[in-house]
Design goal:
Layout lengths: L4 E6 L2 H4 L12 H4 L2 H4 L2 H6 L1 H16 L5 H8 L5 E6 L5 H5 L4 E3 L2 E8 L10 E2 L19 E5 L9 H9 L3 E5 L21 E4 L12 E4 L3 H12 L2
Parallel strand pairs: 1-2, 1-7, 2-3, 7-8, 8-9
Antiparallel strand pairs: 4-5, 4-6
Helix pairs in contact: 6-9
Bound molecules: adenosine-5-diphosphoribose.
C-alpha cells in the first residue's frame, strides 16, 4: 500500500535545541550581525573577509553541534510516510539525523561555490570537517574567489520550484521552528492542497496567514515531534 506523502518545512527553531542560534528570537543572529553586511552579495563585495569569517564561525559551531531529538524523529517519520524535508536551514543536522530526502532552500553551510556563478555545479565543493574555512585567495574551479554556498538576501532561490512540486503533493504538511517571515519559503503554504492537514510546532505563536485546518503544537521541536508522532502514528 502506497505510503502517504508527508512534507516538513523546517526553520532555525528546528536546530535551536542543538545549540544553533535562531535569527529573530531575542539574542538571535540578526541582533548581533547586520544582515546587510554578512548576508547579502553587496556585503560580500564590500568586505569579503568579514563575510567569510562570519560563515567560518558558523561552520565551526555546526561541527560541534549534534542533531537533536526533533531531527531524529523527523528522520523516523520515513518509516511511516514518504517524507520530503524542505529546510530553510543551512546546517546538515537533518541529514546527520538520518533524513534521506532534504531540499535546502537557502543553501548549505558545509559547501562552497563560485562567486562569479554560484549556481555553477562544477564549482560547488564540500568543505572538509577538519578545516571548514574559506579564506581570501581560495579559488573556485572557474578561478573566482570561493564563497559560501548560501542564498543571500536578494539572491534567487533555485530550489524553490522543487519545493513547490513537493508541497503540491503533500497529504500532510508539518511546519517546525520557522517564524514564516522570509519569502519565498513562507509562501510555500499557499501551494498546499486544500484538504491536507497542517501541523505547526513552535513554542511561540506563529501567524500562518492564509492557511486553515492547522493543528498548533505549542512546544519545542523535540517535545513537539513526540506529540506529533503520537497523533500521526496510531
Ligand atoms: N523548537 C522549535 N521552534 C523554536 C525553538 C525550539 N526549541 N526555539 C525557537 N523556535 C522558533 C521561534 O519561535 C521562531 O518562530 O523558531 C522560529 C525561528 O524563526 P527565525 O529565527 O525567523 O528563523 P527562520 O524562520 O528559519 O528564518 C528564515 O531567515 O534570515 C533568514 O535565511 C535565514 O533561513 C533563515 C530565514
Amino acid at each position: 500500500m502506497k505510503m502517504k506523502k508527508l512534507v516538513v518545512l523546517s526553520g532555525a527553531g528546528m536546530s535551536a535545541e542543538s545549540g544553533i542560534s535562531t535569527f529573530r528570537d531575542s539574542g538571535g543572529l540578526w541582533e548581533n550581525y547586520p544582515v546587510e553586511q554578512v548576508a547579502t552579495p553587496e556585503g560580500f563585495y564590500r568586505n569579503p573577509a568579514l563575510v567569510l569569517n562570519f560563515y567560518n564561525a558558523r561552520r565551526k559551531e555546526l561541527i560541534g553541534a549534534k542533531p537533536n531529538e526533533g531531527h531524529k524523529l523527523v528522520a523516523e517519520l520515513e518509516k511511516h510516510f514518504d517524507v520530503t524535508v524542505i529546510t530553510q536551514n543551512v546546517d546538515n543536522l537533518h541529514e546527520r539525523a538520518g533524513s534521506t530526502n532534504v531540499i535546502h532552500l537557502h543553501g548549505e553551510l558545509m559547501k562552497a561555490c563560485s562567486s562569479r556563478n554560484p549556481d555553477d555545479r562544477k564549482c560547488i565543493v564540500e568543505l572538509p570537517e577538519h578545516n571548514p574555512v574559506i579564506k581570501i585567495g581560495d579559488k573556485a574551479k572557474d578561478g573566482s574567489q570561493l564563497r559560501p554556498f548560501i542564498v543571500w538576501f536578494g539572491e534567487a532561490v533555485p530550489m524553490f520550484d522543487a519545493a513547490v512540486k513537493e508541497t503540491e503533493k503533500a497529504d500532510i504538511f508539518v511546519i517546525i521552528g520557522t517564524s514564516l517571515n522570509v519569502y519565498p519559503a513562507a509562501g510555500l503554504v499557499n501551494y498546499l492542497p486544500q484538504e491536507s492537514p497542517v501541523y505547526l510546532i513552535d513554542p511561540k505563536d506563529v501567524d500562518v496567514k492564509s492557511v486553515h485546518n492547522v493543528t498548533f503544537i505549542k512546544k519545542g521541536a523535540s517535545e513537539g515531534m513526540k506529540e506529533l508522532m503520537s497523533l500521526l502514528i496510531k
